[in-house]
Amino acid sequence: MSIEVMLKEFAEASAHPYRLIKEYKAQGKKVIGVLPYYAPEELVYAAGMVPMGIWGSNSKTISMAKEYCATFYCTIAQLALEMLLDGTLDDLDGLITPTICDTLRPMSQNFRVAMEGKLPCIFLAHPQQRKPAFGLQFTMDQYQHIKAELEKISGEAITDDALRNAIKVYNRSRAARREFVKLAGEHPDVISAVNRSAVLRSAWFMLKDEHTAKVEALNEELKKLPVCNWKGKKVLTSGIICDNPKLLQIFDDNQIAIVADDVAHESRPIRVDAAETGDPMMALAQQFADQDYDVLLYDEFSNQNRRADFVVKQIKDSGAQGLVLFMQQFCDPEEMEYPYLKKALDEAGIPHIKLGVDQQMRDFGQASTAIQAFADVL
Question: Which residues, in sequence order, are CB contacts of 101 under 8 Å at separation 6+?
Answer without folding.
Answer: 296, 331, 333
